[in-house]
Design brief:
Length: 848
């Protein structure tokens, strides 16, 4: 291609595509040679670098050159898969509802009301919102910064992940001094059958009082999602026409924080329009001299002869097939234009069973049983249960709703995928090879199925998604808890034929558990976690050997639950099933109930049981109840009594038991931190509020200290201490604050854990060094990871003695020397300097 450019005397500009992408794909579909030409990475690289520009389409700390590595360094895949706001059209929401009219005599009319919401985005951050009853045909051509009509608002926008944040929406026709309120909106991209990321679902709408900065949610019902519609006249507008627009708020976006005393910021600067560019590839060819056209025709002919068969071989499509593969990424550009792509990984078994599905009962069936049983699901994906053990994977069952599927279960999946590749690399050459582990999520709702289907592989690539089975949603008896039924039903159905692991979604792994399990699995029927409660063992992590006796035991638990609802763990350990409490007592003449209890016993039904070492398989509540439990030896922490879901997740992270879920550690954000939090309760609260405000307005993530010291609260553990020092997550509801305010907060050990992950720390065990598959794991490049580790250690200090007001602090944070690129980690210092504690009197956002 470069030689051709030189021969044609064309300037090399990375082959930037000037027309729209649909034209490129239409040209590619004309013949195989055209497809070869359009797969040139130079075209797609130029498109991506022109599209994914901070701070709108990606964050200021992100770079397209780094993001492409998440898509296998394939620029075309990057352009197809990565979320982006479309600027060549408008997002339209159509809402229709019925309203009663005024009754006159016997005449009672009903009105059908239809109104439209329009959203248009510009590359420099301008967002135009319009609420009107005018249909699209009358609006879209006029929807630009020069428009003035009722229901029109101008604001700012940015895209973070798949979340679109729009803020500062104000009516441009109202004078600045009369504007009392602005609107803010949060939407999330969704994909549909007609296209990828072409649907915007409104999550929230709120008003902000510009004087008091109070934020109040606005009901969004009735409301319908926005759908993208391309507008031909927009496609040529890389720059909006220069227009005079009234100033509006330039504050940073958030769902709930507002800066006191904030006013309007500077107006938006617009760039003049550029000269029109050729409308198609054919227009560019028409300008070539005759000799160049003949040479180009010769090159195309050679590509057809030589490249055509190569395309067929590399794409896996036989010549006899002749059909073109339609990408599941959906529409690409217009509503009806499809994009061809390389065949993605399979999402079904050989017999067509999907990896993730609801498996609803068949229409007209006489029962509510799922259309595919769990046993059939496992056999389709993992083979028949009578295969030799070395040919079967270890099957881990877990349960999750939508929230857990995004958090704890996602971490489990990340760990399992990482464990598989490391075990293959380390042990794959031994005599019988190594057995993989497969995590199967028994979903409690539909959103869980959708989430698990999007799970990525060990290297952050799409490998077909995770395994999700939601069949037990449909046949649960009313007496049984929704979170108990899948576990009972799975054991009763599957244990007669297949060994099973069960793991709760609040179990967070750090190291490989198999070295502590595999020998025991040869001698026992049940291997389970210690619980230290009512002399039971914990059923949140256990392995059970396949047998009818084990299945019958769980069936007995089900019958007990049908009579009186209880936790399955309690019933399974009770006297009528296993008889755990009595059988674990000591029989040497001493105290029969001294701790620890016996770890080996034979249950009433003959099953041989081993209870695992609680130093290795640790529960969170052992930190309080069992001070001898050694955290450094633990392969996981089970958040048994760790409060709600968000708190369980944060505490697991704080104790070092979390994985690189969605780049949590390998894509470190800019951080804001402080050395310590100490003072009276009022002082500590004020300091925390200042940190949250500063983090929000500087677009940083808060890195809190590990503990907070309250000088006016006596210690609960020492009668001689007049103050109390607590873990930061015991001092504040950290994850709930983060969720409510939209401010990222990481665990105190984040920097060390991120450095370990970037350096390639192994999950095979403590002392293993770097991961066994380190050669393949360098998807980010050794140099890129080393640079991130170096930046994690770079800290810039900001002296609080130089900030007499909150406004002065926020002004300093906006200076280039304190920007994320200059200061990866920003530390606030000298809070407690005598005579400089003016921060005590600062008036902070009321939301806090």
């Amino acid at each position: 291609m470069h030689l051709l450019e030189m021969e044609l005397e064309l300037e090399y500009t990375e082959r930037e595509w000037k027309s729209d992408v649909e034209a490129l794909e239409r040209f590619a579909r004309t013949c195989r040679a055209a497809r070869v030409l359009t797969l040139d990475s130079g075209i797609w690289r130029a498109l991506c670098l022109r599209t994914y520009v901070p701070p709108q389409q990606i964050g200021p700390e992100e770079d397209a050159l780094q993001l492409v590595k998440q898509h296998g360094n394939d620029w075309r895949r990057f352009y197809i898969e990565h979320p982006r706001c479309r600027l060549d059209g408008v997002y339209i929401s159509v809402v229709t509802y019925l309203r009663r009219g005024e009754t006159v005599s016997v005449y009672a009319p009903t009105h059908l009301i239809t109104f439209y919401r329009y959203l248009r985005f510009y590359h420099h951050g301008l967002a135009i919102s319009l609420l009107t009853t005018d249909p699209p045909g009358q609006v879209v051509r006029r929807l630009n910064p020069t428009l003035r009509m009722s229901g029109l608002s101008f604001g700012r926008w940015r895209l973070r992940g798949d979340l679109v944040e729009v803020w500062g929406l104000e009516d441009p026709s109202v004078p600045e001094e009369r504007r009392k309120y602005s609107l803010r909106m949060n939407c999330r991209f969704k994909s549909t059958a007609r296209g990828r990321m072409n649907k915007l679902e409104m999550l929230s709408l709120a008003t902000e009082n510009r004087r008091t900065l109070e934020v109040e949610d606005v009901p969004i019902r009735p409301s319908k999602p926005f759908f993208f519609s391309k507008v031909a006249s927009y496609a040529l507008e890389d720059r909006v026409e220069q227009a005079v627009v009234e100033p509006h708020s330039a504050r940073s976006p958030s769902v709930s924080i507002a800066l006191p005393g904030g006013g309007g910021g500077p107006g938006i600067a617009y760039s003049p329009p550029r000269s029109p560019t050729p409308g198609s590839f054919a227009d560019s060819l028409a300008t070539l001299p005759p000799r160049a056209k003949r040479l180009l025709a010769l090159v195309v002919a050679l590509v057809v002869v030589v490249g055509g068969p190569l395309v067929l071989r590399t794409s896996g499509i036989s010549e006899g097939d002749g059909s073109e593969y339609e990408s599941p990424f959906g529409t690409f550009g217009g509503l009806d234009e499809r994009v061809t792509a390389q065949r993605p990984p399979r999402r079904t078994a050989n017999d067509g069973t999907p990896r993730a599905g609801l498996f609803k009962p068949l229409a007209g069936a006489s029962s509510n049983n799922p259309s595919i049983s769990l046993s059939s699901f496992l056999e389709s994906h993992f083979g028949a249960p009578d295969l030799p053990p070395r040919e079967q994977p270890h099957v881990w069952l877990t349960m999750a709703d939508a929230t857990w599927a995004r958090t704890g279960t996602a971490a489990l999946h990340t760990f399992v995928e990482r464990l598989n590749v490391e075990r293959r690399a380390r042990y794959g050459r031994r005599k019988d090879g190594v057995r993989d582990t497969k995590l199967v999520v028994m979903c409690l709702d539909e959103e869980c199925v959708e989430t698990v289907a999007k799970y990525k592989g060990a290297y952050g690539r799409d490998t077909g998604g995770g395994y999700a089975y939601a069949g037990f949603m449909h046949n649960r008896p009313e007496q049984i808890f929704a979170s108990t039924w899948p576990k009972l039903a799975a054991f009763i159905e599957v244990l007669p034929h297949r060994d099973l692991f069960f793991v709760d979604s609040d179990v967070a792994f750090r190291y490989d558990p198999y070295p502590y399990m595999e020998l025991l699995m040869e001698s026992y029927d049940i291997v389970a976690q210690e619980n230290d409660s009512w002399d039971h063992f914990n059923t949140g992590w256990m392995w059970i050997r396949s047998s009818q006796t084990a299945a019958d035991a769980w069936n007995e638990v089900l019958q007990m639950d049908m009579k009186q609802t209880s936790r399955d763990q309690n019933n399974f350990n009770e006297m009528q099933v296993l008889g755990t409490a009595l059988l674990r007592q000591h029989r040497d003449g001493g105290d029969p109930r001294r701790k620890p209890l016996l770890s080996d016993f034979t249950a009433k039904n003959g099953l041989k049981v081993h209870v695992l070492d609680d130093n290795v398989f640790r529960s969170h509540h052992f930190e309080i109840d069992r001070p001898y439990a050694a955290r450094d030896r633990s392969v996981y922490v089970h958040m048994t009594c760790g409060d709600d879901t968000l708190t369980k997740v944060f505490v697991a992270k704080a104790q070092g038991f979390w994985g690189d879920v969605d780049g949590y550690y390998t894509q470190p954000p800019p951080l804001l931190t402080v050395d310590h939090l100490s003072g009276t309760t009022e002082d500590v609260e004020q300091l925390m509020k200042i940190l949250l405000t500063a983090a929000h307005y500087s677009n940083r993530t808060l890195l809190p200290p590990s503990h907070a010291t309250f000088l006016d609260i006596p210690s609960t553990t020492s009668s001689s201490s007049a103050h109390s020092t607590r873990q930061i997550y015991s001092s504040f509801p950290i994850p709930h604050i983060a969720e409510a305010l939209g401010v990222g907060i990481v665990e105190p050990r984040y920097k060390g854990l991120a450095a370990r992950e970037l350096a390639g720390g192994s999950v095979l065990g403590r002392g293993e060094g770097v991961r066994a598959d380190a050669g393949r794991a360098e998807k980010d490049g050794a140099k890129g990871k080393a640079e991130k580790i170096v930046r994690l250690a770079e800290v810039v200090e900001l002296d609080m003695r130089h900030t007499p007001t909150l406004s002065s602090l926020l002004s300093l944070l906006s200076q280039p020397s304190f920007s994320p690129s200059s200061a990866p980690t920003l530390k606030l210092i000298n809070f407690d300097w005598p005579d400089s504690q003016h921060w005590r009197l600062w008036r902070l956002p009321r939301t806090l």
